[in-house]
């Protein structure tokens, strides 16, 4: 009976709470304390919300535990305390957000000298962030009273948890009017300008990196929230400062002032790339340039471009003289002078600037011959595919920009809109990517691809930039076929022998490379194709085959009647003649005059007869298979009206029949012992 068992599973925590003098540490030792808290255990919540318990919980997440504790248990109670405080229980949130003494104790954590314990900093950030989302009014009001709050947070920006805290202030405040108040407050505290100052070359690299990441996240969050708002509101003040020419100029000044370190260049360039990036980031968005041209170019605030343009020469200098790096060992050997993150980020920046199709920026890049340097690096670092992609995107942007200019004004060769800030006659002439000082007979794409073919013929390894180089060559060829004016003019100005080499290269080497790539990648393309909604139909199955047919149990067999067994005997006339000849040679003719034996008479079983019967059957089947007439013979007999097929598939040994029974095979039908007696069979001829 059920009443024999005690099914009242009382929690051990409830038993502890019923005991006199229970402590918070004893409860935190229980494994299910978090589950009971999230399950709204009323008795437990009332105990945790007591003043001395809340004070102890806050102390655990803000004060360093004793150093003499074992390392793996040292932060056990601080971790449990953080989980209890952020368990999203209304009673705990109300107590923590409504008690100013607890908020003061939390805030005191920021007043410590750096560096903060990263684990405790994460506990603090998580707790404050939860309060910002759940008790917004009380916490924002408390923080705004603290005039040094932003200073203290930036003082500890080397801890990534402080980044999260700033982002929660920007993204987790609701409703919209209150959020705008917070943004204005942060703008009054000069948050963006102070983060930009941390990008100076003399700052600690960890602070530079976290400040850069914070600025990038603010840009993306602000743009996303602006796109999501349905109603028109006042512009985001933080984003407005970030996109201002003054702030971008200050950022560039901090990057290049003093000694140029790789960290300052990389972190600063990441902010610029975020300012320049399209709404659809990532490789998929960038590669749309190939298919949709300059129509996919996105609008960038002109103040950003105006601030970047005077410093293009500084980025050019970085390509020529990058920060020194020691040699590194790679899978293809020792690289004495690595490309480095600084030059790679410069290549990314140039690619993003070219995609804006801003005329003045493109003219300055052309004047500085930046593309020549990037192409030199492309061939020098033949195994750096990150660089190869950026150079390929630069070429695509140049060709698309030129095509767009041709469509707008086919006769336009020199642009005379906003002049470039640089000096030199080349700034006013040409098209981005056209180098007027280069040797027209120099075709590095052709030479590299031809050299790679020879290298492979000698048993060498395929060079790492061949895939991108092939796509660049194909892009040039496609634009020539489209009649792009700039490419056509350059082609016609080439010497006769160079033009002939190019045409030979396109017709032979490039065509063979494309053919081989198509064959090699065909199955890969099949594997990565997108699975469509009608995949089941395409795969060869029908949903109806998997459903239950309640009304017609024979539905699954209806299609058998659609099979066509009719075979044209003329199609196998040669085989049929050979088959008949083989039959006359190997199979003895049946004697129709032989007396018919009574099948019911008792007689001794002769196993030799069985073997003879099996041998005759085997010979029959061998002939049929040899001349591929098994289906033809049976189909021909079944196709003849009023006739039945001879015995060709019945093994007498399996049915227990004798040799005499097989000789009288004209009285049997194919493979069936249930043939009606009134049916006749045709004798074998």
UniProtKB/TrEMBL annotation:
Q: Give any Gene Ontology cellular component.
A: nucleus
In alphabetical order, the GO MF annotations are: protein phosphatase binding; protein phosphatase regulator activity
**Regions of compositional bias (Polar residues) in chain numbering:** 422-444, 670-685
So which domain of life are we looking at? Eukaryota
Alphabetized SUPFAM superfamilies for the sequence? ARM repeat
Where are the annotated segments for Disordered?
A: 409-444, 639-685
* Listed InterPro entries: ARM-type_fold, SAPS
Coiled-coil region: none
Q: Where is the composition biased (Low complexity)?
A: 649-658
Q: Which Pfam families match?
A: SAPS
Q: Which family does it belong to?
A: Belongs to the SAPS family.
Would you tell me the protein name for this molecule? Protein phosphatase 6, regulatory subunit 2a
Organism annotation: Cyprinus carpio
